[in-house]
Specification:
A hairpin with a 6-residue loop joins strand 1 and strand 2. This protein is α+β, with helices and mostly antiparallel strands and 179 residues long. Helix content is 41%, strand content 16%. The chain has a two-stranded antiparallel ribbon with strand order 1-2. Strands 3-4 form a two-stranded parallel ribbon. It has a two-stranded antiparallel ribbon with strand order 5-6.
Length: 179
């Protein structure tokens, strides 16, 4: 068929190449690879991070990241059965995560509109939102860095207070010996 022509042997042994989008358990992929169902990775997900591929590099404000993360609500939920069936996931499995509409208010660049989702029964969710968990994860890295700064500052202040407390205790003992 015409779609078979899009798949070719690649230059490396045991590899294939496909130009275009690939959908697994879906006929409407809106990204290079869309999987409706669980994905098991027996290795690592790798992301481009090489400085030589980046420009306009600026350090982030970790104070702001901590504020944004503290505003995000974490919830427990289950997917509705009709959505789970269309997405190839288990409806009864409890999940923990965020609500895209809420994240969009706090961190809009972590939310994407993927268009309409149509269930087998004909029901439609218009402008279905998904979150970029990698973006939220990086926000968490910044928030943790900010918490480390705050903790280090508190430890320094506690050490200083303990030194002053010991000095005051010594002065009190000397004062009581004099009297």
């Amino acid at each position: 068929s015409d779609s078979d022509v899009l798949w070719q042997r690649a230059q490396l042994p045991d590899t294939v190449f496909h130009h275009g989008r690939v959908g697994i358990n879906t006929d409407r992929p809106d990204e290079a690879l869309v999987v409706h169902g669980n994905v098991k990775v027996m290795g690592s997900l790798m992301h481009p991070a090489d400085l030589r591929a980046k420009e306009h590099v600026q350090e982030v404000d970790t104070t702001e990241q901590l504020k944004r993360i503290s505003r995000m609500r974490l919830v427990h939920y289950r997917y509705k059965p009709e959505f789970a069936a269309s997405a190839g996931i288990e409806a009864t499995a409890p999940e923990t995560g965020v609500i895209a509409q809420e994240v969009k208010e706090i961190l809009p660049e972590a939310v994407k509109d993927t268009g309409d989702v149509v269930f087998a029964n004909g029901k439609t969710i218009e402008n279905f939102l998904v979150v970029n968990k990698e973006r939220i994860f990086m926000e968490n890295v910044g928030a943790v860095k900010e918490l480390c700064k705050l903790t280090d500052n508190l430890e320094t202040r506690i050490d200083e207070l303990e030194r002053w407390s010991h000095k005051l205790a010594k002065l009190r003992r000397l004062d009581s010996l004099k009297s």
